[in-house]
């Protein structure tokens, strides 16, 4: 896919400009008229021109490492994201290193600082407790950054899920099996951007005439232990739920552990729905019904955005990746 | 655990030597008499003295990153190893970055080179296709390296499993259920050090009067796909096996996929035994019987060896971690 034979001179020829102009478009070091920039960018795209990153890093002193910073390295969703990212970037001589923050803001900040300090080639990150201002040092340092998250962090490249259709389909499915009291085991209150998956579910549930009362929303970390604790808390309510949505699949597996322990039948007594489609979702019994966020597509999109940045794109871009409802046996 | 209040002067006082001598023991920059070294090392251990790595890295220009280099980032065994390593090293201001090589030797070599080039604080690695000479540049550069593997790579710190007792128990279990024809889905022939798990199994099987004939050994990568292909190949033999050992749990899950597809009942028709006890081993149905290699203990041992190296230990050390037979439902 990456054709290193195409040179800057080829691009210049195709665009009818000088090589210097192509270089200015790529580096942003001097202003280029918008029309000229558009012509050059079209030529770049047409020729699949990619800057030889290794050669560039030798010139600029940047390393060939790209940091993928995630809250939970043991969540297979991120492992698959890492694998795809690595595949996409290998041809450019870049290596992906995965950094787990344990969902701690101090770790998240320390790793961002380290990426700048070590002159990494780029950063792809799923923030958990970071705030918008935490990205300022990276932007100031000219570090290419791609965020993969449910919410925006300002003018930074973003890959984000569109889960409206998938969540609607999940609710249709829950509603046809006559469930009325839905619950959610959500992430912690202080996670960045709140919990869009919860807001989303609440808004749609109303349209389906189902309730998502406050006493049926429990919160915790994105861990198996928190999933078990959350499910236990929900089942001890005076009117327990008959359908439980989980913030991610790791939480859902914890909920299954607790259901088994309590003798609660899934899906007989309670329907269970995850988020992400982590690899084990199809391995557990009953097999987990989930709202799938395609890790491979997220990885490809993030790689693409990063490559464009390395090639000099300045304006931030957002890519929406469609989530998908995957019906298995837990509803 | 890491008490930074203890200074080199405290160690010197406790050992009855000068601070300079403590420093020589730590850095290895000048020879120290063996008896003196022993007294100083005892004092270091007693006082839980740990060099302040962050302060040292500022002096030496080393980064605060430790690379964990593994063949398969999606294997939860390595994710748990990474998490434990990070926990153990956090107090020293070190950050673990995980690098997946996809079991490719070129990637393995490139990442080692990058670790030297970037002046990483240390490397923990499970090599897959590397050879002993590939480590020479790291040793020459004075890079602290810990290898986690079944086999030794020369005079380098090693964390290695002792699976003799656990494999014997697995074979006892298989033999009491009247299985006689055992098979193995092993790793690729060109993996470094061959496949000690296979050699091991073969030697022990003979003691149990069971055969492990050549036609019942199939080889492939450590992937789910290779596990499925290997299981399919074994079932198409004229005399198929009644017990199948797998090189790791990822392979075993692939074998389960194929068994399901072929209508082969596990454990009714064929017993299945994994290696590692990756997190999903207890999630699949039937739950996977496996030879557990405790990732958390491996992580703790690797961290300990690395810290000792950072504190100046020169002589290589090997730590044996006991594997354990975990009987679940697939035998």
TrEMBL record, chains A, B:
HTH lacI-type domain boundaries: 6-60
UniProt-listed CDD domains: HTH_LacI, PBP1_LacI_sugar_binding-like
Top-rank taxon, per record: Bacteria
One MF annotation (Gene Ontology) recorded for this entry: DNA binding
Coiled-coil residue spans: none
Pfam families attached to this UniProt entry: LacI, Peripla_BP_3
Annotated keywords: DNA-binding, Transcription, Transcription regulation
Name the UniProt record assigns to this protein: LacI family DNA-binding transcriptional regulator
Lineage: Bacteria, Bacillati, Actinomycetota, Actinomycetes, Kitasatosporales
């Amino acid at each position: 896919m990456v054709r290193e034979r195409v040179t800057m001179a080829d691009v210049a020829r195709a665009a009818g400009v000088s090589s210097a102009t192509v270089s200015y478009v790529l580096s942003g070091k001097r202003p280029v008229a918008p029309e000229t920039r558009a012509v050059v960018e079209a030529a770049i795209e047409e020729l699949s021109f990619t800057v030889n990153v290794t050669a560039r890093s030798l010139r600029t002193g940047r390393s060939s490492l790209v940091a993928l910073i995630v809250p939970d390295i043991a969540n297979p969703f991120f492992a698959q994201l890492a694998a795809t990212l690595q595949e996409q970037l290998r041809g450019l001589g870049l290596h992906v290193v995965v950094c787990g923050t344990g969902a701690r803001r101090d770790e998240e900040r320390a790793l961002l600082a380290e990426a700048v300090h070590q002159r990494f080639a780029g950063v792809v990150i799923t923030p958990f407790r970071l705030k918008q201002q935490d990205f300022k040092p990276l932007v100031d340092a000219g570090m290419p950054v791609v965020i993969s998250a449910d919410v925006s962090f300002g003018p930074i490249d973003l890959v984000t899920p569109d889960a409206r259709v998938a969540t609607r389909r999940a609710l249709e499915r829950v509603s046809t099996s006559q469930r009325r009291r839905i619950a959610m085991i959500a992430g912690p209150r202080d996670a960045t951007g709140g919990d869009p998956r919860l807001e989303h579910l609440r808004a749609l549930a109303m349209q389906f005439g189902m309730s998502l009362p406050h006493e049926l929303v429990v919160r915790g970390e994105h861990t198996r232990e928190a999933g078990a604790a959350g499910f236990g808390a929900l089942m001890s309510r005076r009117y327990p739920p008959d359908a439980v949505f989980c913030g991610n699949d790791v939480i859902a597996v914890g909920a299954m552990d607790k259901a088994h322990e309590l003798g609660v039948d899934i899906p007989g007594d309670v329907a269970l729905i995850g988020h992400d489609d982590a690899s084990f979702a199809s391995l557990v019994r009953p097999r987990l019904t989930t709202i799938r966020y395609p890790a491979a597509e997220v990885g490809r999109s993030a790689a693409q955005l990063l490559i464009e940045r390395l090639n000099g794109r300045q304006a931030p871009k957002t890519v929406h990746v469609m989530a998908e409802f995957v019906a298995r046996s837990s509803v």
